[in-house]
User: Which sequence fits this backbone?
């Protein structure tokens, strides 16, 4: 039983700040995903929990114990590396057995536990092989077996799926989720892949340039991103962000008729009226704002508010992404169902926004924070 | 001149040729041009190899092959008389002579002194210099510098250090009698020390290169799995380095078998036999220059060649098997 806590943790490499006063609590039994692009400090944060990097300031604790100065071997954590880091000169069985052996577990017990772990991960027939004789997926499972075999307090996983092909990745993703749920071991999972994060994490912590951007459950993170970075990072494709001015526009009559507020976001050649709920929440902000619209909240319609030119049409089978440039040069992606009429490249179109107030996200133009609250 | 030409050169095509259907490839046509191009390339390759071949031929292959002729002749002990043919008859007496067997034993003892210590020291230095610390590059340069120091200079320096009057030992208060370089017990270890020092640079470089290929993540994984520094070294680093260590071992063995300069400069030929520093090459040179016995020297040289050949074959075999370590 262990929660993992970062309290104002900072890590510096020379003049570079890799992790900037990170405060984050991982609950006992939780699978928390650290998400961010490469170099955002997520792996460094993970390595500080493992004890492979020293903490510059702040405290890292596992359970009730501050582990800043505890040796990796005494932290009772297990780590799965991106490269798997299997011991190439040892057989699969010896690889899985290694952590038990180092802890002085008796021979019979070791044998039982290795067998259990191997069976859990479907490695029973491969125990005598060397890592060099295994496929990528099998190596990955050996690395997992080596992690689970000694039942550590915490699992640390550093992009464990990034060396697998797409099909295997989806399968293993589900396997890890299932395994973690069964063992209910606190897990910190690092990835740059937002699909992995969304499908696996109980909560997701988004990091950028060493700073924590937002921690929330996947749905909440997607529905109410705390800032423009999170908005753009999550979703495939990410949220459309258009810079504009918050202006009073509509007449009271129009408000009564359409149910829309008197506020709208104006940018070159277009003015997007905001629903009353959204308008009330952000009234008084700005006036320079960034309007965020998810691709699925948009559709092509003759009476749409935004004029644009089609640049690329991507067919994905189940859906189509229409990539347009607005008159200000901003890129806006519209997600259409496969059955919708496909525009031609170069065609002038108008883009309409759904009426649902949740479709509108407004961010401060200066610092990117969400306007109108995240709840 | 053939009618069909594949060269798209500016040759004027005879009028009427254009009317014909494209000529079917004539058997041997394109492949003939290919073959001639290959021949040209091969010729160029041999031409470029020629200088090296000449050098090797004159200074390595010819002397080597000449040994096999020399070993069939015996030079009389009296100068001026021509060598006479004895066939294979002097082989057995030469390799069973006390002088040769003692020299062989001395050499083996020397190898046993030099190889393990230079490997361990090289590995130790490489591991020490592998850590990511500031100023480590300077240490790496220092550790590998013995590679570029000449035997003669090193021998003079060591000779001075071990000198009973002005050396380091008397300065430290150690004054063995007889002095190290004149003692039948310590002369060979002193030569070995110099040889170890000389080989240390190369040993360090080879081990460092090997260490670079051991992924950091493996050692980190072992650390998290509960292995202390000692276990990580013996159970991870050493096994993963074993091909490198083996390679360095064979190289240093070959190197130690051929020790000559160190013995010659530190001990000199008057004392070599008395002080038990009469290693194989030294013995061969003595046989040739002092005894004037070309035939016996040739036989000893061939024995040394065979020993080194076996070592080299072993190394190649062993390394081939160990290559499967690669991830």
Assistant:
């Amino acid at each position: 039983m262990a929660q993992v806590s970062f309290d104002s943790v900072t890590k510096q490499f020379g003049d570079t700040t890799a992790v900037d006063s990170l405060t984050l609590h991982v609950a006992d039994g939780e699978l928390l995903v650290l998400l961010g692009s490469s170099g955002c400090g997520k792996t460094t944060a993970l390595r500080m929990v493992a004890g492979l990097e020293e903490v510059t300031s702040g405290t890292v604790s596992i359970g009730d114990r501050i582990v800043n100065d505890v040796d990796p071997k005494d932290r009772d954590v297990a780590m799965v590396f991106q490269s798997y880091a299997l011991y190439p000169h040892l057989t699969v069985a010896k690889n899985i057995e290694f952590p038990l052996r180092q802890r002085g577990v008796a021979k019979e017990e070791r044998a039982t536990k290795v067998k259990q772990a191997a069976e859990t991960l479907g490695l029973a027939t491969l125990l005598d092989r060397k890592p060099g004789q295994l496929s990528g997926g099998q190596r990955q499972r050996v690395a997992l077996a080596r992690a689970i075999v000694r039942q550590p307090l915490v699992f640390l996983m550093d992009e464990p799926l990034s060396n697998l092909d797409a099909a295997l990745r989806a399968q293993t993703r589900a396997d890890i989720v299932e395994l973690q749920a069964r063992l209910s071991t606190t897990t910190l999972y690092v990835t740059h892949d937002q699909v992995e994060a969304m499908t696996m994490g109980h909560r997701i912590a988004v990091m950028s340039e060493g700073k924590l951007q937002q921690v929330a459950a996947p749905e909440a993170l997607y529905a109410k991103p705390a800032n423009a970075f999170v908005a753009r990072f999550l979703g495939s494709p990410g949220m459309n962000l258009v810079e504009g001015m918050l202006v009073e526009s509509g007449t009271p009559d129009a408000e009564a008729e359409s149910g829309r507020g008197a506020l709208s976001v104006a940018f070159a050649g277009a003015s997007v009226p905001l629903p009353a709920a959204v308008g009330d929440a952000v009234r008084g902000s700005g006036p320079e704002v960034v309007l965020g619209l998810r691709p699925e909240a948009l559709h092509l319609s003759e009476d749409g508010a935004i004029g644009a030119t089609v640049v690329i049409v991507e067919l994905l089978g189940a859906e189509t992404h229409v990539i347009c440039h607005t008159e200000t040069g901003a890129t806006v992606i519209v997600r259409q169902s496969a059955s919708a009429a496909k525009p031609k490249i170069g065609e002038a179109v108008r883009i309409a926004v759904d009426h649902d107030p949740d479709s509108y996200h407004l961010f401060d133009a200066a610092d990117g924070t969400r306007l109108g609250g995240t709840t | 001149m053939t009618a069909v030409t594949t060269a798209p050169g500016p040759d004027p095509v005879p009028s009427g040729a254009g009317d014909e259907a494209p000529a079917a490839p004539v058997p041997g046509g394109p492949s003939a041009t290919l073959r001639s191009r290959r021949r040209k390339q091969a010729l160029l390759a041999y031409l470029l190899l020629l200088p090296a071949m000449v050098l090797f031929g004159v200074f390595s292959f010819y002397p080597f092959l000449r040994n096999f002729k020399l070993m069939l002749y015996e030079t009389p002990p009296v100068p001026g008389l021509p060598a006479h043919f004895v066939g294979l008859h002097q082989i057995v007496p030469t390799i069973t002579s006390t002088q040769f067997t003692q020299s062989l034993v001395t050499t083996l003892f020397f190898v046993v002194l030099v190889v393990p210590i230079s490997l361990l020291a090289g590995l130790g230095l490489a591991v020490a210099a592998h850590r990511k610390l500031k100023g480590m590059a300077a240490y790496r340069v220092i550790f590998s510098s013995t590679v570029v120091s000449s035997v003669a200079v090193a021998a003079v320096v060591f000779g001075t250090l071990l000198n009973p009057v002005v050396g380091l030992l008397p300065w430290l208060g150690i004054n063995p009698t007889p002095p190290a370089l004149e003692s039948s017990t310590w002369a060979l270890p002193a030569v070995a020390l110099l040889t170890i020092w000389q080989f240390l640079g190369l040993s360090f470089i080879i081990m460092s290169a090997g260490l670079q290929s051991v992924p950091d993540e493996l050692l980190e994984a072992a650390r998290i799995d509960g292995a202390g520094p000692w276990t990580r070294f013996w159970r991870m680093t050493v096994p993963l380095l074993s091909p490198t260590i083996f390679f360095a071992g064979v190289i240093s063995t070959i190197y130690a078998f051929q020790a000559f300069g160190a013995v010659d400069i530190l001990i000199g030929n008057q004392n070599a036999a008395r002080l038990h520093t009469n290693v194989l090459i030294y013995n061969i040179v003595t046989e040739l220059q002092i005894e004037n016995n070309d035939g016996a020297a040739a036989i000893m040289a061939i024995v040394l060649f065979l020993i080194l050949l076996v070592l080299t074959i072993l190394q190649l075999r062993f390394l081939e098997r160990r290559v499967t370590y690669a991830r």
Notes: Chain B touches chain A at residues 215, 217-218, 220-228, 231, 236, 239-240, 324-327 (CB under 8 Å). The radius of gyration of chain B is 29 Å.
